[in-house]
Specification:
It is built from twelve helices and ten strands. It has 355 residues and is α/β, with parallel strands linked by helices. InterPro entries: Aminotransferase_I/II_large (IPR004839), PyrdxlP-dep_Trfase (IPR015424), PyrdxlP-dep_Trfase_major (IPR015421), PyrdxlP-dep_Trfase_small (IPR015422), TyrNic_aminoTrfase (IPR005958).
Amino acid sequence: MPIRISATLADPPQLQRQEPNTRRGWNVRASEFATGTVNPIRVIIEDMKLTPNPEKKMISLSIGDPTVAGHLKPCNEILDSVEKSHLEAREAVASYSVRPGAPIEAKDVVLTSGCSHALELFIGVLANPGQTILVPRPGFPLYKTLAKPEKSWEVDLGRPRAPNYVRHRGHSSQQPFQSLWLRVFPKASSIYFGGSSQKLCAHHCRWIMSNSYFQEKNFIQSHLFHYLFLVPGWRMGWILIHDRNDVFGSSVRNGLQALCQRIMGTNTIVQGALPAILGNTPQNFFNDVIMSVKINASIAFSVLSEIPGLTPIMPSGAMYMMVGVDVGTFSGFHNDTELVEKLVSEQSVMCLPGA
């Protein structure tokens, strides 16, 4: 007997009710999630009027790729490692990340597709809608809050005591100003809510997410692999869970694992090469890169410091330099965006507004 398969099919044409065709064409709209997603720096750039001077070669000072100019390149040990077989990548990361007093095991490592992915996992696993995240300002366009440039962007620990900051999470970003945890939190023992009741985080902080390093308490740290090793296109990073008192427990670890399953995973070729890269890259490679960046930063700082109306902030290892602009010193400009537009049109030099 033939199998009946027509149960879900439409009735024959002669039995269908004829409805007037009023459709004028398709109108497919993006979801509310997509339309509500905004990258602040893209909004600024897209609204700016950028027409370079045709008589001058364009110089972009806003590109975050340290290798684009060609003078900074990964060493052979990094490139050769991609061609070799792999062991456990997380074991290699754990071994590479261990510091005195701060043990790390493979179970504490979550591989990510760069640091932006790590930030997404941070927020997704710990923050709920309506809660506040405390981050430095100015900073990486993915997050915002208050800070003080004259003190290398130390977080103002006094401000969050207001009632509307009752639920916040602490975060230290290193780009573009590279403020180090030694400066941001001189008393690392007060960073978790288990500290003295007089400490800020005893009142407010639930957890700390960091892309710097300190070893006193419980926090989550991200590591930007592809910039440190000058291979930005490889898109590799990782999260380290420092949980000395088992505060995060299985809940946070399982949550991170669940969020990681939303994508197919990180770059598997680079995963396989991680043990060799982390184990074989010579220290002089990092020393040379640091020296090159430091020399360029010192030159830029010295030159910019002599220009009236500009106040450069010396970075502590970042690949960007923030420069304060006294708009009143430059006639004809109402804000830094207008100044950047004019810089492009007259000199073909592209910077990023930071206001």
